[in-house]
């Protein structure tokens, strides 16, 4: 695979030299945390592995990249969609230009203050242009969505890649998302496959997350990782590895004992093979997801694919576990 040059990733609240954000002493833990050098050929865990799902994703990206102007990346939260955006950029005619990643709501706020011009100037150079990545575009409040239309009004040579775990079409029907903005964003749609749809890629995903950090997993730790269902997807996996690296305290091999305690109480035997009541199994799963989400009910509801009010109703039957509406 060729090595493609992509530009720096800019924070929407700090458009200065990105190198200034990585002044920490270099240790295996810091190496795990820092963004990868932009000259590296790999595009992150979202496209790591050899499963049929990833093969289809890579094929779709390489077919679309030379021609698209806007793309919408969909799929569950935590699927590391920025890697897909990087690969689209790298295979596009503007691969030599800038790749600028912004949190969509923060950029919308900046556009209202006219600070957003700095972002557009950074990504839309005078020659070949670049790629603007808008993360969590479905979270932009309706009052701010119109500001994002200024991206196209600026008439710069910019390719736009947006990411969301929400259904923008449904949001447009219910009045939660501007139809004109949704139409702009949905030029081409690419779905990021979740980890549970490609379990054979897990080891490759772990290797990609750890790449360059000087860290590896013991066989026992790897088996424990494979046994987990990862409801929070790649984001949960990355956090688990970061927690393990911190606990390992400089040891190059992370053992099972270094992994978060929650992984020890992972899903366990398949409930389908037991004689438990369905209600009990559902309650255990809901409580398990809520625990892995640190008690954050909004995040747990998103992982479970239910509304927060539905989650509250479920938790009302689990008050003995210490959870309930709050």
Summarize the entry for a quick read.
The protein has 326 residues and is an alpha/beta fold.
- Strand order of the biggest β-sheet: 2-3-4-1-5
**In which range does the helix fraction lie?**
40-55%
Please report which band the strand proportion falls in: under 5%, 5-15%, 15-25%, 25-35%, 35-45% or over 45%: 5-15%
CATH superfamily of the largest domain: P-loop containing nucleotide triphosphate hydrolases
Number of strands: 7
Oligomer: single chain
Structural class: alpha/beta
CATH top level label of the largest domain: Alpha Beta
Number of helices: 16
**Overall structural domain count:** 2
Distance between the termini: 51 Å
Spell the H/E element sequence.
HHEHEHHEHHEHHEHEHHEHHHH
Spans where pLDDT lies below 50 across 5 or more residues: 1-41, 265-274, 320-326
Radius of gyration: 21 Å
The shape, in one word, is: globular
Could you report the average pLDDT, rounded to the nearest whole number?
A: 77
Structural overview:
The protein is of the alpha/beta class and 326 residues long. The protein has 2 domains: 174 residues, P-loop containing nucleotide triphosphate hydrolases (Rossmann fold), CATH 3.40.50; 124 residues. The strands form 2 sheets. It has a 5-stranded parallel beta sheet with strand order 2-3-4-1-5, sandwiched between helices. Strands 6-7 form a two-stranded parallel sheet. Helix 4 packs across helix 6, helix 14 crosses helix 15 and helix 15 crosses helix 16. The longest helix has 16 residues. The chain is globular and about 55 Å long. The protein starts with 27 loop residues before the first helix and ends in a 10-residue tail after the last helix. The N terminus and C terminus are likely disordered.
